[in-house]
Design goal:
This protein is α/β, with parallel strands linked by helices. It has 8 helices and 7 strands.
Length: 222
């Protein structure tokens, strides 16, 4: 009996890395666009492409090899995604990627993967990933949709303000425990509500004022 796989959640830095997609359909296009967002170099191997993939190739954003997969295509590749309807091709690519120590994923076939891609909610640099370990992609999608209703586009702006505030907090509040409390107070303040109301400029000012108060309090307690 095969042991159930327990996956370790991880975010990969693929910037500048060579990645490969086998297949030219809608799923392949979605995967290519996702990899491009991570600033990976993307090569797509397929005799045919969707119109979207063809536009990406014409714009020079991806490399297209208009043919079937060859074993030599794996040379120098960091990650491969198989998105074809040809089981034999998918299995061949997965087996050879395994031998070469390459990260490989056959879409919707977790037993032919050494990594799986979670369902994701993105709000700028904020990413929430959901996975059922390959047990039910439909449930992952449902949970993702529920999260999307809770975490709206305002979180993109909120994270941007927090990123701006972080160097100042680190500089003015050197003690780690006080710094942790400072982050929590800023996050739990009314800033997010102001952003939701379209009052971003006021929200930024409130964050600055909050940091001043916290910094002053920390100085008084030294």
């Amino acid at each position: 009996m095969m042991t159930r796989r327990i996956y370790y959640p991880i975010f990969l830095n693929l910037q500048g890395e060579r990645t490969l997609i086998i297949g030219g359909g809608r799923v392949a296009e979605r995967k290519a666009r996702s990899l491009l967002k991570s600033h990976a170099h993307v090569t797509v191997i397929s005799p045919e492409l969707t119109s979207g993939l063809r536009r990406l190739a014409q714009a020079g954003r991806i490399i297209h090899k208009e043919r079937k997969f060859l074993s030599s295509d794996l040379n120098g590749i960091r990650l491969i995604i198989c998105a074809t309807n040809d089981t034999a091709v998918n299995r061949k690519a997965a087996v050879q990627a395994e031998r070469k120590g390459i990260l490989y994923n056959v879409v919707d076939v977790p037993e032919l993967c050494n990594f799986i891609v979670p369902s994701m909610v993105r709000r700028g640099d904020l990413t929430v990933a959901v996975s059922t370990g390959g047990g039910s992609p439909a449930l992952s999608k449902k949970v993702r949709q529920e999260i999307e209703t809770l975490i709206g586009p305002e979180y993109k702006t909120f994270l941007k303000l927090l990123r701006e505030a972080r160097p100042k907090i680190q500089r003015e509040i050197p003690e780690k425990s006080r710094r942790t409390r400072a982050y929590r107070e800023v996050i739990e303040s009314e800033t997010l509500s102001l952003i939701r109301a379209g009052r971003t400029k006021e929200a930024r000012q409130r964050v600055r004022e909050k940091i001043k108060i916290i910094s002053r309090r920390a100085g008084e307690n030294i």
